[in-house]
């Protein structure tokens, strides 16, 4: 039923990744510029080492330079990388580029692959994804209003986007726009590649947010008669949602995997401080409330970890894992926030300060309840799938019974 | 790392068990007498069928008539049996007999095995376990006060026990008593087999409790100069705690496995009723609060299931799984209670009535926070183990660093 | 804004009530027969004492033999009575009679008052209330299906009711039935008085439930061409909902008041046991987890108490307190369950046994989430009222702004 | 028992405060510089208006320029001011100055009052409070290590302090230091006034923290042979803890009062957005999950409000309110965080951005679990007081019983 064990060679890769984290990534954290990330002179050598050790862009298929080892392996790897905000970038698997490469891989023309995919994979250029709109609930992507109208050899795009993460550093954006307003809800939109700098593609403002792990901001973008070549459509007309779904589904599980890294690190910090810090004459570790924090966190992290690997394993079997992915998205988000918060509480004022990574983890983690679909939507998705399954089973029984 | 998959032949056994549950066990539930169980004329034929289909007493090694298929398999089987309060008894794995058989297997003399173990395995006689005492916290078994003093060819037992489950139906009790008051805390006590009916072994009262799944009550027992043959000691003098630990550890995981069955069944009932029952013109299933109940329950059951199987798998690997067992004991107990409570809430007054099994599940489940060690002790155990591990790692690092 | 202080004379009444509880009611608890209550020979002398001390039926206006001291006073009194399951009956304020007397007071004809109200007030006869139906969600009373059709000088009632508490001991029932199926949803039904024993009024079964504080059961009742005199209508045709609302609103606050008594008593038991019981060499009271239980319970009880008195006080001011009543109904229900559960946990196995009142409190308390409207409905009511208020304020601002 | 009603003239003052908030304070929020506050040219005119309307420094006695209207009134006023991070400063009641003024009022010499107290009250200068130390748990103030040794006409201070809020803007600091290391734990320390700029008083660094409501930072300060005049002791030698307790107690309730303002504003924003924003074709307000958020928040805010006013009222009666203050400190902190978090969730990405005040509220609120004593300490304080009360009652009963 379940088999989450890495092979011996995978174990070896994971150990190598762990070593780079300890030797290079954690020590580099002190150079992080909030909202910007690592300076290139620090980042590039680490990336080079990762490439040399054959750990670069592990999420990609072998053909395109990745490792092609499946989702359980990725879960175990991302758990390691996720323990540092700069881990994924150092290992060539940083969002939102990863999601964009997956779309380009699936739907890109040879020319698009050459021009956009390859340099992104190599981290020579960065990219962003512009789907969410200020006037439409992000929880309901069928409502988007940005339009793309064909005019001769060009598409003309008009509309507003926001929370386009990384736009400030990107060379191009993947933009979702309605191409056929009269089609069925999930066939109205298409995806387009827009080069940054195209006239009419206006970077309005970097929306300030609670967390500062993003390197390239979260931008509001206005499209004013932005004209792009006809060939810049990604996939076929009307395929926008299909591609978005392909991008978001695995993206959610990637989040859950990285959360594990954050949880583990918070757990480590919590225990280490509890052993060290004294109050009223004894270490915090001897207070039962602190012990409860540790035990509850251990249980929840274990739950989170097994559920994430289970979802990944199901994906590897080629089975439908949407329910499992939705489950861990909302359940894991709560655990993530709770574990970090307990670690902060153990540290007291120190935990509230920026002297430990916990404070930044806490701010970043609040977004986990929101991005890639709010908790409320994932709960609904899970419930509706179960309800449908039970309804179908019931209907079958009715048919069977009436057939007797 | 993790592999919880049953083999094809195990799958076949599980399917067979599921079939017996549906065809025989669930339909027999209407004959349950609360606090007593199934009448023999209903129970015995089901047990016979289970034996014929080679599913009897699956927890035991092959040599003694069990299946010997390991703990992961037992988890999957007990998940099925646990969905009915009479499932375990029908399949020859009912507590407290199972725990007692495990001690007898480990420590019993050939004569004890012949006289006590074999008839219990075959469900010809029943047994009970008398450890907890009214004047001593059950969370601290080293404090027990009942004494056993050697007098010639006999042991003379004095003291009070309570919550000896099943005593009302038992042919013998396994009694824990202090044989060496001056020894180290975990070497003070020994175990004894006492035949019910031995003079001085007084069944004082069946302590009324919230739940009524027990068939033979929860008894207070007084031992007044109760004399038993010297040969009735179980194992060696001073081995009482070692044997108790051996009994309780796996017992806890068995509880967690059966809770899965209760959760699954509550989940089924919740969804089926939500699809059927209407309020304000639409099925309950369409209300978002009910959908949230379903999604949260699905997440928690998944967590509980994976953690239970994980602990079982670790035991099968011969690894120390005490942390994992403690985790699922307190974490699973909460989930169990919450899932049942949500299922009741969906049913409204009906859920509060005895017209569905949920009401009895709810009362029974409250004990899960208490029996085999309260939540508080398991949290403490988990925390202390983590703290010790981290302390040791820290010490090693100090040593390494000072060696440089 | 808020003034919850009893006058000196009210303080004196409360002290008197407290004394009777301690001297007579608590000691009588050992005579309770679960699901039946106190035997008359124990009950009647206590009731007599209460009457002599001018504390009988305090909820009623002075004219009809009550105290007429308002809802804040009743809150403080019910907090005292609610600490014992037999308190309200001993003091002449037991449900469902109290609710029925309120309807009779408001809507009863002089003849009905003489025949039904007065003997109920005096506890000479008992009564029940039959509104909920098995085929209709109790959360949506507008859906009831029982019909009452006028036939000459009689009403003919047909339909099914269930969870009619106390029916097994009642002399009459107040029955809700549809008299005008085509009217607006809240004007379709009327209330009727039906004497127990009237042909066609069939007590089908006492529905077994989790709790056993009810004295007269929770009955399923079928009405088969049950004919009653035309004069037995209560109030006017179509007033059924208006009267039910009048009955249920104050009923909900009465529940909340009595819950306080249960919480207080559970809190007392928790602390007393924590001081007394030792584990691992020290009293439970010294364990931080137990201290957390105490502190959290103290906070929640304080919240519950102030919110209940606040709602009562608002009612006394003649203000609309529906929001406040709905708030305390669902918020208090959770607190009630949590406080009892913690008290049980502190007691361990003993708390799970029937040796303390906690076990019965726990079973009874589960119904608090359901009766008089499930939590889900009260949450919805609160939210909709707030939403409406804010929407109205917003509309006013729009009007104001456009007028400028 | 409870009377929280403001008088008519108090109502009038509160209305005036509300008007200033709406007309001046909220509109000024857009000028806030995070971590710095309002520029003087915006702040000063508002402060002037507050002074003219006789609302300045309301927490102080009349003699010294305050309103002297008691704690219930202050609760109601602070609820209003607390809804904006700049409210308290605009109204002359900003921490940490308020706490410092209270100490100066109690213990200051006429000269200290003239030199330090009066200009602080008038907001001509600012001050800070340096108690917490990096090497000692803030939850255990008896452990502080900074020393003050008398040398002729001077005190010589040595040690480290941190989280001295506002130090960056202050003219003086109140510093706690050990004057008698051998005294009883609560009599070891004294308080001193140290002018900023005194040699040896080194502002090491502004400790970056999660929230940015503080105007003058949270500083680490080292005292290196810092010499101050002997007359700069505050109160008597050994009175440090007495004065600190006097400062912190009312400070905690002031926090709780202001939290109410934050909760109210978050609640407003949540509902207003839920009414406005649509998803899947209907306003968020129509989704049951959102309605549950509203209802749960309403209940919790009501609890928080009543408990805060209750504690204030008890203080006004001259009664010991330490238990009530501790209760609302930890209970209110949780509610504060939960209400803000729900408001953010309703806003989705917008709530996570800095486009609404919710994001800043969320970061600030996390500290509520920590400052002025962590939750864990307040829970312990409450529990120990209850335990002591019950133990005393029990002892009295034992004495009474033995006397009979």
TrEMBL record, chains A, B, C, D:
Needed cofactors, names only, are:
FAD
Q: Which residues form the Acyl-CoA dehydrogenase/oxidase C-terminal domain?
A: 238-386
Keyword Oxidoreductase: yes or no?
yes
Q: Which domain of life is it from?
A: Bacteria
Entry keywords, A to Z = FAD, Flavoprotein, Oxidoreductase
Ranges that cross the membrane: none
Classification via Pfam families = Acyl-CoA_dh_1, Acyl-CoA_dh_M, Acyl-CoA_dh_N
> Where is the Acyl-CoA oxidase/dehydrogenase middle domain positioned along the sequence?
128-211
Instruction: Tell me where in this chain the Acyl-CoA dehydrogenase/oxidase N-terminal domain is found.
Output: 8-122
State the family it belongs to.
Belongs to the acyl-CoA dehydrogenase family.
SUBUNIT field: Homodimer.
Q: Provide the protein name.
A: Acyl-CoA dehydrogenase family protein
User: What organism does this protein naturally occur in?
Assistant: Niallia oryzisoli
